[in-house]
Design brief:
Elements: H1 9-19, E1 23-29, E2 32-38, E3 64-68, H2 72-84, E4 88-92, H3 95-104, E5 109-113, H4 122-132, E6 138-142, H5 148-156, E7 161-163, H6 168-179
Parallel strand pairs: 3-4, 3-5, 5-6, 6-7
Antiparallel strand pairs: 1-2
């Protein structure tokens, strides 16, 4: 993106380490901080999953997607990935802006961040979206672990939950699966 960092920060690192029962050792000195990340060893064989998804079958065909994320870098990453996959993509930085956009525009699916710094969170946003667009399809993308808010949004009709940072295969499979429902 031409800048350092992706906006994911240590929260995603912490949640990833927690999800895999690892730990982080932090030390600091005059030359800065050092973060060492440890994961438990696995006896499972390493497999090549890079080609596990048929990229042609997961491509879009011009469907309209709205990405709602408060992090500019995450919106831009999602825009680039989804555009490359053949979707028409619009992005907004808040739940409030998503609602305003959806007042005047229809989309096939929404990629919704669950934790946003200001205003409504993802669950609240989805609840309000359903008032404007009943039955609106959505998937949830978050750097945090699956939460009660995620489960409530899914109970209301949101589809898959994918963790950031997600791969092209993960987001494309989630979107395609939801669009085919």
């Amino acid at each position: 993106m031409g800048r350092s960092g992706t906006g994911l920060g240590l929260t995603v690192v912490w949640n990833t380490v927690e999800d895999h029962q690892g730990y982080i050792h932090v030390s600091s000195g005059t030359n800065g901080a050092r973060f060492e990340v440890y994961f438990p060893a696995s006896g499972m064989a390493v497999t090549d999953t890079a080609h596990s998804v048929d990229r042609i079958s997961i491509k879009g065909s011009g469907q309209r997607i709205l990405v709602v994320d408060d992090e500019e870098s995450q919106r831009e990453i999602a825009r680039q990935i989804l555009t490359e996959l053949g979707y028409q993509v619009e992005t907004v930085e808040s739940g409030e802006k998503a609602l305003a956009y959806l007042q005047a525009n229809a989309v096939d699916i929404i990629v919704l961040d669950m934790i946003m710094q200001t205003g409504m969170n993802g669950r609240q946003t989805y609840e309000e979206i359903l008032k404007v667009r009943p039955g609106q399809k959505a998937i949830i993308a978050s750097g945090f672990a699956e939460s009660a808010d995620v489960r409530e949004a899914q109970r209301l009709g949101a589809g898959a939950f994918i963790k950031k940072p997600y791969t092209i295969d993960q987001i494309s499979v989630a979107i395609k699966g939801e669009l085919l429902k």
